TrEMBL record:
Top-level taxon of origin: Bacteria
Cross-referenced SMART domains: AAA
Gene3D superfamilies attached to this UniProt entry: P-loop containing nucleotide triphosphate hydrolases (3.40.50.300)
Pfam families: ABC_tran
One of the record's GO molecular function terms: ATP binding
InterPro entries: AAA+_ATPase (IPR003593), ABC_transporter-like_ATP-bd (IPR003439), ABC_transporter-like_CS (IPR017871), ABC_Transporter_VariousFunc (IPR051782), P-loop_NTPase (IPR027417)
Protein name per Swiss-Prot or TrEMBL: ABC transporter ATP-binding protein
ABC transporter domain sequence ranges: 3-230
Keyword terms of this UniProt record: ATP-binding, Nucleotide-binding, Transport
Length: 235
């Protein structure tokens, strides 16, 4: 499977954020998307998820040699600021989510198995989501996105608010999920990107570019990435 972006452009007023991007992502890989603040990472995700209108461009999935347009049901999108229905308990939310996605969730587990899988303690499962911490809401958002087993998983800085233990668990979880999908992961934490991701892609000057690791060690690789990002024009 391949996910291809063709001629994607997006501007806000006078600012050209994405400039005629052409890029192909491959199945089974986690891509670390790095870019300076304001480089356009969230904008790129929002364009792919059709949350905002693009100026032009197309998105395709190719499976077994057959190419078709990307559909919304192909995508899981974990936002940096988790959005969950605050007025429901975590259990009610999962039940509702399972009900409305009955036809698209393959081999569903029980609600408590999902909580277990995500490390959400029994005492927290019947609490209102408005009383969940930022990190716990993040876990719930991650869970519902994983449940539908999307072909394309977009993660916008999802681990930033998690404590070290949970962040490590989530890292292992993402690694275990990477087969049969394409994962694109934006982060500012370089060590996390190097540790978790198979490829590092820079979003710089509105374009995507792979940074080749070749035979560099991690420190040299980091230096190369930072040097490339420094060139970003910040006006
Ligand atoms: N709705 C909008 N209206 C006007 N400008 C916008 C809008 N959304 C984003 N921008 C601008 O587009 C640029 C890219 O923003 P975006 O949030 O995609 O960057 P980012 O790479 O995700 O940044 P960060 O790493 O800080 O989260 C910024 O200059 C931002 O101000």
């Amino acid at each position: 499977m391949k996910f291809t972006i063709e001629h994607l452009s997006k501007h806000f007023e006078k600012k050209e954020v994405l400039r005629d991007i052409d890029f192909t992502f491959e199945e089974g890989k986690i891509y670390g998307l790095l870019g300076r603040n304001g480089a356009g990472k969230t904008t790129l995700f929002n364009c792919i998820n059709r949350d905002i209108k693009t100026d032009g461009g197309s998105f395709y999935l190719e499976e077994d040699g057959v190419r078709r347009e990307l559909k919304s049901e192909d995508i899981g999108y974990v936002l940096s600021v988790p959005t969950v229905p605050e007025f429901l308990t975590a259990r009610e939310f999962l039940k509702f989510f399972l009900d409305i996605n009955e036809n698209s969730i393959r081999n569903p587990k029980s609600i408590d198995e999902y909580f277990e899988y995500m490390g959400i303690a029994p005492d927290d499962r019947d609490k209102l989501l408005k009383d969940y911490s930022h990190g716990m809401k993040n876990k719930m958002q991650m869970l519902v996105n994983i449940m539908v087993q999307p072909k394309l998983l977009l993660l916008d800085e999802p681990l930033t608010s998690l404590d070290v233990v949970v962040a490590e668990e989530m890292k292992q979880l993402l690694k275990s999920l990477k087969q049969e999908r394409i994962t694109i992961f934006s982060t500012h934490i370089m060590d996390l990107a190097l540790d978790l991701c198979d490829e590092i892609v820079l979003l710089s000057h509105g374009e995507l570019e792979v940074v080749e690791k070749s035979n560099l060690d991690n420190q040299e690789f980091k230096t190369r990435i930072i040097a490339a990002l420094r060139e970003e024009d910040h006006v």
